[in-house]
Amino acid sequence: MKLWMELTTESSPSPSRITGQGTFSGEDNLTEFTYDAAVEGQQVSFDAVMSEDAWYFRYPQFAAQMPEGKEWVKLDGFPGQDDLSSPGVGNPDESLGMLRANGDVQKLGQAKIGRVQTTRYRVTMSPEGIVRSLRDQGKDELAEELEGAGSQITGPVHAEVFITPSGLLRRMRTVTTVVTDGKAVTTEMRADLFDYGIHPDIQIPDDSQVLELDPEQMEALGQAS
After folding, report:
1. Which CA distances in Å does 126 have to 28, 102, 132, 156?
2. What's the confidence (pLDDT) of residue 210?
3. pTM reported for the whole predicted model
């Protein structure tokens, strides 16, 4: 996969941009990514390995704050983390299933992604439809997080998908606005998927190299850096 994201807020004069590339293994629901981000004028690079149980990150800029021998930070305890691990990164089947179940779909014609011919569709989903879909999939914790007072999707979620004649997802674009703590954050994302059928060898970092933190401790580590 190749990923491009841009986040804009009402208070920030310039958007934050994130690019990345990696692989997803449907056999064991593991994802491996390398990211580059420009946040508030600063360049940040990091590696990520995500499983259904935990997320692992390696930040070169945090190296001086890490205990000796530790290279990775393990994060656990996010609401709905087990639900977000694979679909949130790009599980094609689950992503398309949610769109089909809850979206108002328009067919926009043919388009080439690289050398591959695809059919382009536009999908518009309501926040209520997304929450309903999550509950139908048994992802109640994530649905409650989206409905909670701290974070709320405002307005419809717009998506475009590009599907091959054999039904494979080649590209997805989404635009979403979420209000968190009274501030609106708009996220535009594009993910390109290719090389279907490979068997990536994704390894979870060894415990000896891992520093385990909860989200609050991770935030404190970033402030200390």
Report:
1. 31, 8, 10, 5
2. 92
3. 0.74
